[in-house]
Amino acid sequence: MSEQQLFSLQEHLKLFGVTSISNLLLDAYHALAIQDNELILLLQLSRLIEDQEKHVDLLVYFEERMGIHRYSVRGILQRLRSRGLVYLPINLQDCTPSEAMLHPLYKKLLNWSDTPPQERAKEKEKPPEEEVVVLFEHLFRDINEVEYQRLRDWIVVDGWPPEVVKEALSIAALSRNLNFRYIDRILFNWQARGCRTLDDVHALEAKRNQEKEAALNQEKEVPVHRPASRRRSSAKAPGAFQVGTVGKVQETPEERRQRFARLEK
User: Fold this and answer.
1) Coil, strand or helix: which one is 56?
2) What share of the chain is helix, strand, coil (3-state, %, to 5)?
3) pTM surpassing 0.70?
4) Splitting the chain (265 residues) into consecutive groups of 10 residues, what average pLDDT does each group show?
């Protein structure tokens, strides 16, 4: 393709419109713990605002352009909202996109740009529930808004360390049981046994394994009493007396004849 053809192609693409992207956003989005799919959604939202679209169903709009289910869209929006990156109305249907939606993001970008480079590394911390969400989506599927809020409540409200919740998710994945009641029951059982840290959970599991091993070893040591066979052997032990004999194992025909002769007398 010649340089002239490439220039013509670029001009042709501009006919479809161009969305301006701040270089500051591209530089800082990873430092602000913004995932790639969240960045794409923010860019799509920026496009809506620039095009001055009105009365848009955001769930349908993002679902069609990002190729993900609207439940996943809700989960992404919930994460952005809870981390103070966007402002969104409660009703996402038939809303009018406005610049105010991205004001929280702009403020974070300006604060990041004003922060000295040596201090940015200290501030580069993900929300406590973020790593749990990443594990959930790796083990199961994209998270929806309700599930995200439940995961966040386990950490923020109930006070579970993220690594403990991740351990419960791993157990649920091994059991192939994606049921939040099941995961909640795992956490409840740990709490009832005084487990609050991952070390406590590992100690409890080690104790259970020791008890199981001890029970198996005890079963192996217990002698097994088998009932005696009812069938008697027809073979006779050496030296055994035959029926009708006195003190002898066998009687010759001549001895038997003489004995009968004595009885007849």
Assistant:
1) strand
2) 60, 0, 40
3) no
4) 60 68 87 87 90 84 88 83 84 82 91 80 66 86 82 86 92 87 92 89 87 80 59 49 47 71 64
Task: Read off the tokens for 160.
Answer: 């579970």
Distance (Å, whole) CA 129 – CA 149: 10
Alpha carbon distance 256, 58 (integer Å):
117
DSSP symbol at 122: H
Count of beta carbons in the 10 Å neighbourhood of residue 99: 10
* Cα–Cα distance measured from residue 159 to residue 47, given in angstroms and rounded to the nearest whole number: 39
The amino acid sitting at 136 is F
The C-alpha atoms of residue 109 and residue 25 are separated, in whole angstroms, by: 7
In what helix (H) or strand (E) does residue 211 lie, and over which residues does it extend?
Answer: helix 198-221
Q: How many CB atoms lie within 10 A of CB 133?
A: 21
